[in-house]
Amino acid sequence: MMECKTIAGIKLPAIGIGTWNMGRAKGPVERADYSNDEQCILAIKKAIKLGMWHIDTAEMYSSGHTEEIVGAAIKDIPRKKVFVTTKVLPLHLKHNDLIAAAEESLKRLQLEYVDLYLIHWVNLTSQIREAIAAMDELVESGSVKHIGVSNFSTKQLQLAQSFTKNKIVTNQVEYSLLDRSCEKELLPYCQENDVALTAYTPLAEGKILKNKTLAAVAEKHSKTPAQVALNWLISKKNVIAIPKAATMEHVRENAGAVGWKLNREDTEMLEKEF
Fold this sequence. Notes:
- This protein is α/β, with parallel strands linked by helices.
- The chain has one domain: NADP-dependent oxidoreductase domain (TIM Barrel, Alpha-Beta Barrel), CATH 3.20.20.
- Helices cover 39% and strands 17% of the residues.
- It contains 10 helices and 10 strands.
- It has helices at 37-49, 65-74, 95-109, 128-141, 154-163, 186-192, 212-220, 225-234, 248-255, 264-273, and strands at residues 4-7, 10-13, 17-18, 54-56, 83-88, 114-119, 144-150, 168-174, 196-200, 239-241.
- The strands form 2 sheets. It has an 8-stranded parallel β-sheet. Strands 1-2 form a two-stranded antiparallel sheet.
- It is globular and about 55 Å long.
- It starts with a strand and ends with a helix.
């Protein structure tokens, strides 16, 4: 059974499913490729069935096509059985642009509201006030249930908090055994202020999976290196993870990261290694 965490008054599975690169054509430009849609849809459905009902996406992914894939995957599932997060690009942080971007995301997702709407990142800190004001309006209208941010520094997060009457539910940032930079300042701040730290790229795009120490800990627990890496992450207070899984195999593997715990010796060994 999937482990859940309650942060900022919201109950979420410790592990959800990320959708970055689902439905994306190869190459440097974000554009759609429809050839693997059915596989991606089945993977999302399987994730929900296994308890990973937090689905993270963004308007940027595959130029909006990833949101369409998510919408197709969840259209026959009772709305309250899924928690959908999507994100707005920094190109759309002016008031009217953000409102329009949210409306387009809702159309692609085939939803009346998203559970969590994030600012994907900001190019200028001065963009935050206007964007947050627009997001507050979306909450008032019912198009968005909760708001958050992504790739924000601690100071930018604090600024966003100062501009809104709503709770900033999460800061979604890169966090893995390989990239632990958020532990210095951001993670402690989130833990002290009831903010979820949502870890994206939690397996460092596979770069950590052949590490000998990680493999040894995995063998000890009869788990895979990916399951150990995810378990280490979600053992942290206020941390949830959204690993991408576009195949049934990876979905099942991610689900196996819960229901057991690393001991102190394992944790210290991994943190010393990385």
